[in-house]
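QA checklist item 7 of 12: single-chain prediction sanity check.
[x] sequence parsed
[x] length recorded as 244
[x] structure emitted
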Amino acid sequence: MVHHHKENRYTGDIPFLLKWAGKVDGTIVDLACGTGRATIPLASKGYKLMGVDVHKGMLEAAREKSSRLNLPIEWIKQDCTKLSLNLMSPFIYSVGNVFQHFLTNEEQDSFLTSVNKHLKESGIFIFDTRFPSKEELLQPNTEEYWKSYQDTDTGQKVDVYTISQYDPLTQIQHYTMIRKSVNAEGLAVNEKRTNIRLRYVFPKEMERLLSANGFEIIDVYQDWQETPLTRDSDQMIYVCKKSS
């Protein structure tokens, strides 16, 4: 498996988001904010932030972190495809490849419409998604070793394997992540499987999708350092402006 679901300590996107935050006035909205990985750093620089997520547990963790740091972030539990926030924002973002969790055309449209509706005139929307390269889509559908880590609770080593199956009709990649706990003798003592489904969107399809939902693409990059997209990219970062 080539690229992975980055752990929550990832910070590569923060300087980029801060740059855009500096250009706007008003409340910035972090959609699918999780535990506030990208919300808290922006708020700590003095910007007014709202974090929205559908997972109660994650929001509770985020709220606890922000109150410890005395940051006045508003945390809201809502489904991003059906937002009903009582504000218009100049800048909304959704990072961490969240876009790939909207698996159907209808979900993608609802998400984009929902964002558009909450943006001020010419408001900015930034999101990222993995690039559907051949390497990404043609990963082996056999068990592949990915990485190992130490479980802080049990002290045991955990080996992580992935199985990947891409369905070209739905453009959905079905991942199974297998975590095997290994004891001191090196024997696998238990196994936990998680299934993840991710939708892939091709660049030309994305142009049409964004334009149909009222957005104009300002820039597309392959990383947060603003490198232009190439055929060898891993990721697509879209900077869009509300056009209608």
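[x] summary fact logged: The first helix runs from residue 14 to 21.
[ ] second reviewer sign-off
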